[in-house]
Design a protein that fits this description.
alpha+beta, DNA Primase, Chain A, 3 domains, seven-stranded mixed beta sheet, 9 helices, 20% strand
Amino acid sequence: MNKPTISRCNKLLDDGFSLLTVGDGKKPNFTWKKSQTKPLSKNDFIKLYEYAGGEFYKDKDTNELIEIKPTLGIGIITGFNNLEVIDIDLKVLPTLKDQQDFWNEYTMYLRESIDDFDNKFVIYKTVNNGYHIIYKCEKIDRNIKIAKLQGYKEAIIESRGIGGYVWIYDNQVSKFGYDKVQEISEKDRELLWEISRSFNYVEQQPEQPKEIIKEYRKNENDITPWEDFNNKNRIWDLISNEFTIVKKLSNKLIIRRHGATSASSGSVFTKDNKMFLFSTGTQYPHEKPLSPFDIYSIKNYNGDFKKAAADLYSKNYGSRNIKNNPIK
């Protein structure tokens, strides 16, 4: 990728950005800690911009002299001047169609939820078909992995805030560019983050007490009461009196707790039949995948696995085996 011209960089400095220079692998080639709170002067920046190699530094651990890599690109330091960026990394998805479908669904949800979205956010397309959503806000955070899709190890949505930076790109896909980055309200930022978090999938499985499992599974093919209950009941049927469906997406329902003022409270993953809440204020734990049985045990037995399992067994859930002697 080509370096932005020096005139473009000077314009960004004039517009209130703090810049850093980048060497191999999009990594800063000079220290930039001070630039997180105070931008380089134009003269100092030009020196780093034009640096072509030949300088060395001593490694503090080995005392080895290591050459400082030539400047290959320029980055914008996030966190400075309340700048924050949502980084959509679509290359984690295998096909162009998957990437386009995700981006279209994500931005449609944003536009439906945030008033006047296109006049509030700056968006640039990155070199790997990703996107940067750029804004300023009085409230910002550090670099955070926001959402990871089911079956993928890498995050698809991350933030770049305090202590971070982003590469400068040319492909502007929004109404406004870098020179028109606006400060948004904390409410709009919270909507943006809530919607982004709603795409997160947590692989963690709730632990089940081994001693109780043994009581209900005497043979390899036995089905436990909670497995049977999970197979025969849908999450939404169990929670519909407590939540409202905000939006139906391709693989999930976006839900909001009755009485909540936030845009959403979490998601119901329709294929996996799991609920995941990222907000507090309900009787259910947040940031943990919940099965229909988890919902049942929390609603009826305050999360007591043992009592909920025995109750379901008495209601003919699970394998009938004369050796079974469920815990009462």
